[in-house]
Design a protein that fits this description.
single chain
Length: 199
């Protein structure tokens, strides 16, 4: 902000500066946090922010559908045969299911009350520099915490499986997604590939 006091007036929103800050954040995250699930979640949330659109929704729904077919062994809805090793992998995640137990989600009014009642020096600073749009940080928090937890089960699967097992599953998912989306919607397929890469 170069010493300025109003975030929206003084901050540098250039593509170059955004890339610098983003790269610094990712570097700090990867070098200082020893929690692969948390890092995966950050990458997924970043992808959500960057690509929030109908194509991403189609890609997510397709991925969930394919995972359900694999999980329930609905082989007639899959284009590939399930190998013995993939079958063993499916058995390992059977107890985890296709959903996750997520903490209760906060509604908008609760988020806003918590924010308004916060008196920490950092929150005070953030309130000061975003005073022109006081609800902006509440909106961002609400969006990130109350949207797109439907793929969290894949993060749980990843934690439960070996690297080779999850890699085989990802390869299977990648091929199935291509078969299902490539000819229907190339943009949704591109989003699908991003999601597969990030999980």
């Amino acid at each position: 902000m170069s010493g300025g006091e109003d975030y929206f007036d003084d901050v540098d929103f250039s593509k170059k500066q955004i890339d610098i800050i983003e790269n610094k954040f990712i570097s700090e995250l990867e070098n200082n946090i020893n929690d692969k699930a948390a890092i995966s979640k950050v990458y997924i949330l970043k992808n959500i922010i960057d690509n929030e659109n109908e194509y991403r929704r189609t890609a997510e729904n397709t991925l969930i559908s394919i995972c359900a077919h694999i999980y329930w062994l609905n082989t007639s809805n899959l284009t590939q045969a399930i190998s013995d090793s993939l079958l063993n992998t499916i058995e390992k995640v059977e107890s985890l299911g296709l959903t996750t137990t997520t903490p209760p989600q906060l509604d908008w009014s609760t988020i806003k009350d918590i924010w308004n009642d916060s008196e920490t020096p950092w929150d005070g600073y953030l309130k000061k520099i975003t005073s022109e749009v006081p609800d902006s940080l509440c909106s961002a928090f609400n969006f990130l915490t109350n949207n797109d937890t439907q793929l969290d089960f894949l993060i749980q699967w990843k934690e439960h499986l070996s690297e080779n097992e999850f890699s085989e599953l990802k390869t299977f998912l990648a091929v199935e997604g291509e078969q299902e989306l490539k000819d229907i919607s190339s943009k949704a397929f591109e989003e699908y590939k991003k999601i597969i890469t990030l999980i």
